[in-house]
């Protein structure tokens, strides 16, 4: 069976999909936890590096990035119940732009979901090594251990997976709320939050300018503000495990986004303003929330506080492994990746092969970097270059998803849309614009990012060659492919 876009489909019998079944369980709160949990580690660390350009620069950048994510999440809230397939970003792009558009979008999202857990587990290993005093050369054992535990939790059943997601997300939010309440009586905003001057110098008395580096400082902060919301877009990957995706998916993703907006601006306000901390120090800190807790409660409980930070990292690690499994599963079920990767557990109905395959790839990359470059430099590459590769994949997929929203509004206006984005096409266009500007300043502002982009480009080249020579001739009519084909035929008939 061939398609005019240059792809052909292999016919499969019902047993193919029986081996690839999923189980419905998730309601609104499970979906909310999945979205918030994926992001929450970014409120513990990462965002703060933008404070080197001044608090005002970071504040405006956070507003701009929040607008981008609002445009994205409202678009997803419309598309996900209209196309309730596990493929999510790939599925939306496939219906809007054909198989090639779907494949390229799927590749970009695959970079994000395979590499982001690797970066998170690297930081988890660093914290755990510090807490328990294990030698640095044993770091890979922490990575393997955490991958093994959380793959097992995700494989054993969707019910347990979502329950764990809810618990760790609530724990991570509770840690943040405790900090907000503790910090509030101890803030001196002008003295500490405003202690960065022009050229990123420290002002010991505070009261610095709102934009010490002008509007260029705001632009430089955009990539760091992304960490306050990165990965909320994974929520539609749970569409085929949602009890009622047409009702619950928009509620879950919108509730998640507004929860994250509140948390993001609370941490941006209180963490730098806490007496003894300050924007200047946080601008180079690897653990800003820990710095805040230490200023409030002293150094004597540092190890306990480090466990607090691990809670946030674990919440994101667990939820993004879930997303990685579904993302690989959907692309392989449709034949874009090797089909055997989409086989699900016979009893548990979880995509264990996809999760094992994606995790094994991430671990191989981490181990190779660790042993080729050595502990110190290898750690810097994992925490820097891999991180930038994941962000590039995310930004590119945002652009493609917003474009898919616009094209679906234009080309498939008749499909049922249980929810319609209040921001509509202008919101999607704004998302595309901000994503493009953010990508530009990541490319121009960070040499490590350029290296990461080159590696992503190499991955894309290999993927596209594979698809051109082999994959496009062996696609399978999975639910999202069948939907796209039927809608195309309807359009041609009219």
TrEMBL record:
It holds the Pfam family AA_permease_2. The chain crosses the membrane at residues 25-44, 56-77, 113-134, 140-157, 164-184, 214-232, 253-281, 301-323, 352-373, 379-400, 421-443, 449-469. It is a multi-pass membrane protein. The keyword Glycosyltransferase does not apply. It comes from the Bacteria. It is found in: Cell membrane. InterPro entries: AA/rel_permease1, APC_superfamily. Gene3D superfamilies: Amino acid/polyamine transporter I. Keywords: Cell membrane, Membrane, Transmembrane, Transmembrane helix. This is Amino acid permease.
């Amino acid at each position: 069976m061939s398609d005019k876009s240059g792809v052909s489909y292999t016919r499969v019998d019902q047993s193919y999909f029986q081996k690839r079944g999923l189980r419905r369980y998730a309601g609104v709160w499970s979906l909310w936890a999945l979205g918030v949990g994926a992001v929450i580690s970014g409120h513990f660390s990462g965002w703060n590096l933008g404070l080197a350009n001044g608090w005002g620069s970071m504040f405006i950048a956070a507003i701009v990035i929040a607008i981008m994510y609002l445009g994205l999440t409202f678009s997803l809230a419309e598309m996900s119940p209209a196309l309730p397939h596990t493929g999510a970003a790939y599925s939306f792009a496939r219906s809007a732009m054909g198989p090639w558009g779907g494949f390229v979008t799927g590749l970009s999202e695959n970079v994000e979901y395979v590499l982001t857990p690797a970066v998170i587990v690297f930081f988890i290993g660093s914290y755990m090594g510090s807490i328990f005093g294990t030698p640095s050369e044993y770091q890979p054992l922490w990575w393997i251990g955490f991958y093994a535990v959380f793959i097992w939790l995700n494989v054993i059943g969707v019910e347990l997976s979502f329950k764990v997601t809810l618990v760790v997300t609530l724990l991570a939010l509770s840690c943040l709320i405790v900090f907000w309440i503790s910090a509030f009586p101890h803030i001196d905003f002008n003295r500490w939050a405003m202690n960065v001057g022009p050229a990123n110098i420290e002002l010991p008395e505070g009261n610095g300018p709102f934009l010490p580096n002008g509007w260029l400082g705001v632009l430089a902060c955009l990539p760091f503000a992304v960490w306050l919301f990165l990965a909320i877009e994974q929520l539609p990957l749970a569409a085929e495990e949602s009890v009622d995706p047409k009702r619950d998916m928009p509620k879950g993703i919108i509730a998640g986004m507004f929860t994250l907006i509140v948390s993001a601006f609370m941490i941006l306000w209180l963490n730098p303003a806490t007496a003894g901390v300050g924007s200047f120090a946080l601008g180079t800190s690897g653990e800003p929330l820990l710095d805040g807790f230490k200023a409030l409660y002293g150094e004597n409980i540092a190890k306990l506080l480090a466990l607090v930070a691990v809670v946030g990292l674990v919440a994101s690690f667990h939820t993004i492994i879930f997303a990685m499994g579904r993302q690989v599963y959907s692309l392989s079920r449709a034949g874009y990746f090797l089909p055997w990767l989409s086989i699900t557990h016979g009893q548990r109905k979880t995509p264990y092969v996809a999760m094992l395959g994606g995790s094994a790839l991430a671990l191989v990359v981490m181990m190779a970097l660790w042993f080729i470059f050595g502990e110190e430099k290898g750690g810097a590459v994992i925490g820097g270059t891999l991180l930038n590769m994941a962000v590039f994949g995310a930004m590119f997929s945002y652009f493609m998803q917003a474009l898919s929203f616009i094209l679906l509004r234009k080309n498939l206006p008749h499909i049922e849309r249980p929810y319609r984005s209040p921001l509509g096409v202008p919101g999607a266009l704004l998302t595309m614009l901000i994503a493009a500007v953010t990508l530009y300043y990541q490319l121009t502002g960070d040499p490590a990012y350029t290296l990461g982009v080159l590696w992503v480009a190499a991955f894309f080249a290999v993927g596209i060659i594979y698809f051109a020579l082999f994959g496009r001739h062996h696609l399978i009519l999975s639910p999202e492919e069948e939907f796209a084909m039927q809608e195309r035929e309807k359009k041609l008939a009219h």
